[in-house]
Amino acid sequence: MSEEGDARRSARPPGRAAHGAGEDRVVSPVAEGEEQAIEAALRPKRLDEFVGQQRVREQLSLVLQSAVRRGRTPDHIMLSGGPGLGKTTLSMIIAAELGRPLRISSGPAIERAGDLAAVLSTLSEGEVLFVDEIHRMARPAEEMLYVAMEDFRVDVVVGKGPGATAIPLDIAPFTLVGATTRAGLLPAPLRDRFGFVAHMDFYEPAELEVIVERSARLLRVDIHDDAATEISGRSRGTPRIANRLLRRVRDFAEVRADGVITRELARAALTLYEVDERGLDRLDRAVLNALMHTFGGGPVGLSTLAVSVGEEPETVEVVAEPFLVRQGLLARTPRGRVATRAAWEHAGLAPPPPPPTTGTLFGVGDEGSE
Ligand SMILES: Nc1ncnc2c1ncn2[C@@H]1O[C@H](COP(=O)(O)OP(=O)(O)OP(=O)(O)O)[C@@H](O)[C@H]1O
Ligand SMILES: [Mg+2]
């Protein structure tokens, strides 16, 4: 609970300002600086260009089509999923499919209820309001949003103290599209006010391959099919990473060869950028190496582990760990982080023998049931 509270209040979005190696990692799921402009050019504009997430796409298509057919604004829509999976892209697609304007805001930008009132009261009928990182909105604004979502009304408070009065103000019916990378941090009353919640998952390699090929066409890059396969396999299930690896490989192909991306060339480039077959990069490997070699496989606490690789705990936790956990290479246990058998095998080593039982109650602690 306290971790959740901290994350809600934290001035920095988790993973957004990852320090050190987190910032310029070629496999970071977070977009930095000028990358955002490049991404805009690669964004699919309509639902039928959007690759993968088939269930979400079908459900969303129904929600939007029936709203258009009835001439009504659709239910409010929540998009939840990790960084780089396509939430911002989908919000733009939603507005395009509805043929409505899109207003973009974000939780951290809405510090006071007044900030939100200013946005809500100037929406035009049917406008789509996208609130990114909605879990980080200030509490008083959140309460104002509840009323706006349900009754299309804001209560503007005039005056202070006992004499303060709330003046109800009608606002145009709109569609809220909320996005969050941390669905667990959404307060239930907010979550319940969305008529449709889309959970975006990591992409399959075959889907990423289609994305890489599509982006290559847009960037006018000549890429062989097996090279696209190679890149998508190392993209950690994330379109943003796939697009970034493609651009890095293109740079390599232009400088070191004739610009055509072959499989050998893609492999050579990705080796140079230190992204291995599974998509692990230097930070991931540093974490695993420290875990296995410095701490004998763990368990070890997050901050100790972070210090040993010269990173902030947040970087290790938000940037490296989720992927390592998903790959089954690292496990979080109540006593700390441990390297799994797969991690030892990935490093080409034999796992150490299980530790001797250490005075566990009733002597059943070594069953590995924890
Ligand atoms: N389904 C998809 N098909 C094709 N390209 C995609 C898809 N999803 C995402 N992309 C590409 O990946 C990039 C990142 O997507 P987007 O910005 O929508 O992610 P996000 O979920 O909003 O990330 P964040 O949490 O960091 O805001 C975009 O450039 C977009 O072109
Ligand atoms: Mg986004």
Structure in a nutshell:
The protein has 370 residues and is α/β, with parallel strands linked by helices. 44% of the residues lie in helices and 12% in strands. The strands form 3 sheets. A 5-stranded parallel β-sheet has the order 2-3-6-1-7, covered by helices on one side.
Number of domains: 3
Given this structure, which CATH class of the largest domain is correct?
Answer: Alpha Beta
Helix content: 40-55%
User: What composes the largest sheet?
Assistant: 5 strands, parallel
* CATH H-level superfamily title of the largest domain: P-loop containing nucleotide triphosphate hydrolases
Q: Would you give an account of this structure?
A:
This protein is of the alpha/beta class. It folds into three domains: 43-199, 3-Layer(aba) Sandwich (Rossmann fold); 205-272, Helicase, Ruva Protein, domain 3 (Orthogonal Bundle); 282-350, Arc Repressor Mutant, subunit A, CATH 1.10.10.10. The protein is 44% helix and 12% strand. It is built from 15 helices and nine strands. It has helices at 2-9, 35-42, 54-70, 87-98, 113-120, 139-151, 188-191, 205-218, 225-233, 239-256, 263-272, 282-294, 302-308, 313-326, 341-346; strands spanning 77-80, 102-106, 128-132, 153-158, 165-170, 175-180, 196-199, 330-333, 336-339. The strands form three sheets. It has a five-stranded parallel sheet with strand order 2-3-6-1-7, covered by helices on one side. A two-stranded antiparallel ribbon has the order 4-5. A two-stranded antiparallel sheet has the order 8-9. Helix 5 (113-120) runs parallel beside helix 6 (139-151) and helix 8 crosses helix 10 (239-256). The longest helix is centred in the last third of the chain and has 18 residues, at 239-256. It is globular. The two termini are 22 Å apart. Magnesium ion binds at residues 87-88, 132.
